[in-house]
Amino acid sequence: MLSSLGVSDPFDPDHRLVTSPLYSPRTLALQRLVLAIYGCTTLIVSLVYESVVLRQGNIWFSFFTHLAFIGLTAYFVASTYHGFNYKPTSSSVYAFPLQQWPRPLQALHVMLMSTVTTFPILVTICYWALIASPATFATPYLTWSASSLHILNSAFVLLEITTTNISPLPWMALPMCLILLLAYLGMAYITHATQGVYTYTFLDPQTQHAKIAAYIVGIAVGEVIIFVLVRYAIITRDRVFKFSSYHVQDDQKFGAQKEELNEWEEVEWNEVGGRESTHSAGSGTSPGSRKQTTEVGMGVAV
């Protein structure tokens, strides 16, 4: 099952998770760091404001929007860590920490990548199609919150898809994504039972009646479509950029050239030293006799 999720041995031998077709691994790590910082800031401000001002902290974690953004931010945090610890060598296949972690953790990272490249897009579509209203931009906070959680989230995903070498999403991840959506549906109704509120109005059977089934099926179908589109967008990106782990190859080639240069310098130094020793021994002259000869020559010249 782990192999069907793309967990090979060694894991990610081409270092796709930490490289980019456009720029260096360090630049990619910096890009992810900026997104991670913005994501953490957004989550903290949102949680504090809605808990203190709006008095909705008790249901904050029940919104799929927040859960999806938490996953997206967690992915950028983890990817930033592995990116800054990326040290390719020609003598080892292990270049970043995740490659040496237990296989279940590697599988979880692949699953996290599969959710964060699809769920935010689903959130954006559902929000602007079913939930958004003129009140969405009623205050500066609501405007910023809607923009960050329902526009920039998808922008971050598109940036991750187009500027990195992440592998196409494994098909095995699709049913797991659908299971997670089903699990959230159950949590939404648990929230209503315990807090007396529906996190999303289209889940209310009292007002939606038969349409609620259409919404649920439509969201599931939407996730399938998004998953397929993202998978083949990544495949298309690889073809456009003619994917190759050229950053890794360059690093390994540089390391190999450096080793060859050191060996060449050592051999040359030994050869030069050997020739000098042989020349001194063959001449049979001492430093003193050479000095006397030089002085005699200078006297003749004068």
Short description:
The protein is mainly alpha-helical and 302 residues long. The chain has ten helices and no strands. The chain has helices at 25-52, 64-84, 103-116, 119-131, 140-163, 173-195, 205-208, 211-240, 246-283, 287-301.
**H-E string:** HHHHHHHHHH
Tally of domains: 1
Alpha-carbon Rg, integer: 31 Å
Number of helices: 10
Helix content: 55-70%
Instruction: List how many beta strands DSSP finds.
Output: 0
Shape: globular
First CA to last CA: what distance? 94 Å
Structural class computed from helices and strand pairing? mainly alpha
**β-strand amount:** under 5%
Q: Give a quick account of the main beta sheet: strands, pairing sense, barrel closure.
A: none
Indicate the mean pLDDT: 85
Biased composition (Polar residues): 279-295
Region (Disordered): 272-302
Keywords: Membrane, Transmembrane, Transmembrane helix
Transmembrane segments: 33-53, 59-78, 107-130, 142-159, 171-192, 212-234
Can you describe what's shown?
The protein is an all-alpha fold. It has one domain (8-252). It is 70% helix and 0% strand. The chain has helices at 25-52, 64-84, 103-116, 119-131, 140-163, 173-195, 205-208, 211-240, 246-283, 287-301. The chain is globular, with a radius of gyration of 31 Å. The model is unreliable at 245-269 and 275-302 (pLDDT under 50).
List keywords for this structure.
membrane; disordered C terminus; transmembrane; 10 helices; single chain; 302 residues; mainly alpha; transmembrane helix
